[in-house]
Amino acid sequence: MLLVRKKDGHILKDTFSNIAEYLDTDCCLVVNNSKVIPARLIFTKPTGSQIELFCLSPALPSDYAASLSSVISCEWECLAGNLKRFNTSSLGMNLTVNGSDLVLQATKLHQSGNLLRVRFSWNHPGITFGDILSAIGRVPLPPYIKRQPVERDRDWYQTIYSKHKGSVAAPTAGLHFTSHVFGEIARKQIPVHEVTLHVGAGTFQPIKTISVAQHTMHSEYIRVSGEFIRYLAHLNKQVFAVGTTSVRTLETIYWLGVKLLQDGSLSPRELYLDQWDAYNLPQQTSVGDSMSALANWLEKAGLQELVAHTQLMIIPGYSFRVVKSIITNFHQPGSTLLLLVAAFVGESWKETYQYALDNGFRFLSYGDSSLLL
Fold first, then answer.
1. Whose CB among 1, 150, 197, 216 lies 3.0–4.6 Å from 16's, allowing a Cys bridge?
2. pLDDT by residue (tens digit) across 173-215?
3. Cβ-count burial of 8 within 10 angstroms (0-12 exposed, 13-18 middle, 19+ buried)?
C-alpha cells in the first residue's frame, strides 16, 4: 500500500493489513457493497461460431433486483462479441439449472453499434434470470486480464462485503479488505457505512477523444439509504471513501441535494446527475444543507432510500464536497479513474505514480492499493 499526504506530498510505503493505523478515530469509512454478476453469456450457433452477450444493465424491468428475479423473460442492454455472426433474430441454448432442463433464447430487439437490447426468455417458470447467470454466466474480468475467468474468480473478484447484485466490474479497492482488517478498524471504533453503485462496463472505456469535454461518461445506478443521507447531514467526521465508485456516489448525492434546493418538485424519475451538472450548479451549498434537502425530499416522498443514476465525471478542477480521503488501486493512463485521482491529489499525482512504478507496485484490478490523504 502506498500512502500519500496531499498537504505535503509525503509518500510512505506499507502493507494494506496495517491500514487501520492510518485512519483517524474521527473518520468514517464508506464502502460500495455492489456484487459482481457473472454477466457474460456464450451462445454457440449450429455452425460452431460463438457469440458473447455481455449483460450491462437491465432494461425491462429496469431495476436490478427485479430483473434478476424475473421468470420467463426479461430485457437487458448488452454488448455483443462476434456481432457479425449474430445475423439471425435469436440465439438459443439448452442448459440445466438447479437440476432442471430448459431452453434459453436471446432475441435481438434493437441495435446501436455493438450495443444491443436483448430479450432473454426461457421455458421454466421456476428458474430466475439470476439463476441462469449463476449457472452458465462467466465472470466479467477486465479486458486487460489476458486469460479466461476461472471458478475462483467468482470469489476473488468480489469484496467480502458485497451484497447487492448488479456490477459487471468489481469495486476493486475493496478487494484488499479482510475480516482481520475490519476487526482492526472496529477496534478503533471507526464506523463503516455502505452505499451501492453498480459498476458498468464503461469503467473500462478509455478516453479516446482529443478533449476530455468530448468524452461521454457512462451512467451508473446508485442506491443510498435515507438513514445514511440523514447521517451525512449532521456528520462531524472525515469521510474516507473506499474506491472511486464510493467517491462518485458520495459526491453525486451532494449534487442531487443541490439540485433539489433549486427545484424541490423533482420526481424520483428526474433525480439524475448529468456528466457536467456538478460544474454548472451553485457552488456554495454546504454539505449539511444539501444532505438535509435530499433527506427531507425522501421523507416527503415516502421513500426509505435514494435510487438514482449518475454520470458524474470528476476531472482536475473539481472541488470535492464530501470525500476527504480515498482508498483506491492504481489506474491506467487515459482513464476517467486516473482523472479522478489527479483531481484529488493535484499535479503531484505524476510523482506518486512514478514512485509506484519505480517500487514495483502492481496496477489495475488485482493490483496494489493507495491511500490518498
1. 1
2. 999 999 999 999 999 999 999 999 999 877 767 899 999 999 9
3. exposed
With a CB cutoff of 8 Å and minimum separation 6, the contacts of 72 are 121, 122, 125
Q: ∠ at Cα 276 (286, 332), nearest 5°?
A: 105
256: enclosing H helix or E strand: helix 244-262
- Which residue, among 8, 31, 16, 20, has the nearest Cα to 249 in the 3D structure? 31
Q: Spell out the residues 6+ positions from residue 13 whose beta carbon is closer than 8 angstroms to its own.
A: 1, 2, 3, 359
What 3-state DSSP class applies to 109? strand
Q: How far apart are CA 33 and CA 27, in angstroms?
A: 19
State how far the Cα of 117 lies from the Cα of 245, in Å rounded to an integer.
26
Please state, as a whole number, how many other Cβ atoms lie within 10 Å of the Cβ of residue 278: 22
Q: Give CA–CA dist 45/57, Å, rounded.
A: 24
Residue 345 CA to residue 264 CA, distance in Å, equals 34
Round to whole Å and give the CA distance between 365 and 159: 12
Q: How many CA atoms lie within 13 A of 235 on its CB side?
A: 29
Separation CA 55–CA 75 (nearest Å): 10
Coil, strand or helix: which one is 218?
Answer: coil
Cell numbers 460463438: residue: 50
State the Cα–Cα distance between residues 9 and 347, nearest whole angstrom.
10
pTM attached to this predicted model: 0.94
Cis peptide before 61 (omega within 30 of 0): yes
DSSP string, 128-183: BHHHHHHHH-B----TTS-S---TTHHHHTS-TT--EEEESS--GGGGG--HHHHH
3-state SS class at 32? strand
Alpha-carbon gap, residue 67 to 74, rounded angstroms: 6
Contact 341, 372 (CB under 8 A): yes
Q: Helix or strand or coil: residue 65?
A: helix
- pLDDT grade, residue 293 (50/70/90)? very high
